[in-house]
Amino acid sequence: MDYTGLSAGAHTLAFTLSNKLGEPLTEEENLFFTETLFSFTAGADNTQIFTDGSTNINFNINELGSTASGATYRMRYEIVAGSGGLSSAGIPLSPSTLYDLAPGNFSWQFASDLLGGGIKVYRGQQHGN
User: Fold this and answer.
1) Is the dihedral of CA 82, 88, 90, 92 positive or negative?
2) pTM
3) CB–CB of 118/111 below 8 Å?
4) Contact criterion met (CB below 8 Å) for 73 and 125
5) pLDDT of residue 51
6) What span, in angstroms and rounded, lies between the C-alpha atoms of 56 and 128?
7) Which of 54, 69, 90, 105 has the fewest CB atoms in 10 Å of its CB?
8) Predicted local distance difference test score (pLDDT) of residue 92
9) Domains of the chain: which residue ranges?
10) Which residues of the chain have pLDDT under 70?
11) Where does residue 117 fall: left (phi above 0), alpha (psi -120 to 50 degrees), or beta otherwise?
């Protein structure tokens, strides 16, 4: 389940399950959102690579405004066209898995295993502070 808060402040999520007799059980989770503006950018060192070649994908997470929030971030990726894989410091990264990140610059390596173009989708999100 993904929940995206659309406004800063307190949010209450209520989860209700029913047993086979129809008796409900409800649990609540209270969350408090603070708004932190940040920019997320990505760019490849090379726009063309050979099959079984690789290139760095350089990322930057930059908090905007005069005061850093101390927040951490998470990112995941999907390959929606083409083929290949990403790694960080030689360790393979799995698609659709959230990875914890700190603000700043970092690089992941993309390795191609088939000819042709590809589309990778990256999703960054604030995780906490």
Assistant:
1) negative
2) 0.63
3) no
4) yes
5) 73
6) 27
7) 90
8) 93
9) 39-128
10) 1-2, 4, 34-36, 65-69, 116-119, 125-129
11) beta
Tokens of 23: 């008796």
Give residue 87's pLDDT: 92
How many degrees, rounded to 5, is the angle at CA 2 between CA 122 and CA 76?
20
Give the list of residues 6+ apart from residue 3 with CB closer than 8 angstroms, or none: 11, 13, 31
pLDDT at site 38: 76
Give the list of residues 6+ apart from residue 1 with CB closer than 8 angstroms, or none.
none
Classify domain 39-128 at the CATH class level: mainly beta
Give the dihedral of Cα atoms 94, 98, 104, 107; nearest 10 deg: 10
